[in-house]
Specification:
Length: 383
């Protein structure tokens, strides 16, 4: 199969605009947070802080910041607003590729492995891919019609994955409704305790290169779906596979995993096995039976907590919640009997969730297999 360097699709010059000079104009902003929310922001120039790149429909955007999170986005046809994008996006433009095909390439395992080799920075949210190095990456480029055919097949497989993910989200929504039905009044009451009195943050660093740790799963915010609390274990790799060298925090089965980066994304999950956290996460352990891990999980996903997190998180660069802010949050503590009743109800939902999750895992494996075949030319040869 023909291969080309990404440099061929990266414009040498991209016009920019300073929205602050057009305070009353409405812009369509394709930012990193907007990607996480699933749609571009519609903002007046006065609300946008710095100069942005001008983009156009059909451009494919690849995030260079926090590169282990796979973010690739196609700029869709606009309304009447000018379309602009954050400088953290690398832009791909041209007529020789199908935008949807390129998006699939940029989130595929083979490309991601090469992409991570271009990364520089200290770690966590400071990591960035280097565009000059990304230019040299070669990708498979079959004829345009074949690109569209491959993208169509991958879209269908991806749709199946998303359908099952949505089913899991609905179960999570049902769980949240039960939570508010049982404990909503207590969330409004004044009888509350600080999390500092109820939980601890795992804080002892462990060496991921040790034999007993190298095989542990390495979980980051990118592995947790927003709002649903689902860990995409199929995409989680071991510390050895991720090449982790610096100290990480070991979490135990039953701990609650909380993403401190952009807490408004509501990435909170139950750890159902032992593993290691990335530097962007906290592993939380309940100190006594006055509060259960499951109750803690739902409290950290509650509207009350999200409102608190939005108020206190540092917004100087990327919103982040520090340990002191987290532990200062006050929560109601229902009776142990009420929490046990809630746990029993959630256990029934878990049975259904596990059935759907197993089906989703199969869909994820199918999608990965199709990706591997598509970008090695085998999908074409099997027609």
């Amino acid at each position: 199969m023909k291969t080309v360097s990404l440099e061929e699709f990266m414009p040498t010059r991209t016009p920019s605009v300073n929205p602050a000079k057009h305070p009353d104009e409405v812009f369509e902003l394709w930012s990193i947070p907007a990607f996480d929310d699933g749609r571009p922001e519609i903002l007046a120039g006065a609300e946008i802080g710095s100069s942005k790149k001008c983009v156009e429909p059909g451009d494919v955007l690849l995030s260079r910041i926090v590169p282990h999170i796979r973010r690739a986005w196609i700029v869709e046809p606009s309304t009447d607003s000018r379309q602009i994008a954050s400088g953290e996006w690398m832009i791909f433009r041209g007529t020789d590729f199908d935008a949807n095909y390129l998006r699939h390439v940029l989130i595929s395992d083979p490309f991601h492995a090469q992409f991570m080799q271009t990364v520089a920075g200290v770690g966590g949210s400071l990591l960035r891919a280097r565009p000059e190095s990304v230019k040299a990456i070669k990708i498979p480029l079959p004829p345009l019609e074949e690109q569209k055919r491959i993208a169509g097949i991958l879209d269908q497989a991806d749709a199946l994955r998303r359908l099952r993910a949505r089913a899991l989200d609905k179960l999570k929504t049902l769980g949240q409704a039960i939570f508010y039905e049982m404990f909503g009044d207590e969330l409004q009451s004044g009888n509350r305790l600080k999390l500092a009195d109820l939980i601890e943050v795992r804080s002892s660093l462990d060496d991921p290169k040790l034999p007993e740790n190298a095989s542990l799963p390495h979980v980051g915010p990118e592995h947790i779906s927003s709002g649903s609390g689902i860990v995409d274990w199929v995409r989680v790799r071991t510390c050895a596979e991720d090449g982790v060298t610096s100290g990480k925090y070991v979490f135990q089965k039953g701990d609650v995993l909380f993403s401190k980066i952009r807490p408004y994304l509501n990435k909170v999950a139950m750890g159902d096995r032992k593993g290691m956290c990335s530097a962007d996460m906290y592993a939380l352990h309940v100190l006594n039976e006055s509060i259960s891990s499951r109750f803690l999980h739902f409290i950290l996903g509650s509207r009350d907590f999200l409102s608190y997190a939005d108020t206190v998180s540092n917004r100087a660069n990327i919103p982040k919640m520090n340990r002191t802010q987290l532990l200062a949050y006050t929560t109601p503590v229902p009776t142990l009997a009420a929490q046990q009743e809630f746990e029993a109800t959630m256990a029934k939902l878990d049975i259904q969730a596990n059935l759907i999750r197993n089906a989703k895992d199969i869909s994820d494996q199918l999608f990965g297999s199709l990706q591997a075949k598509a970008f090695s030319g085998r999908l074409a040869s099997e027609r």
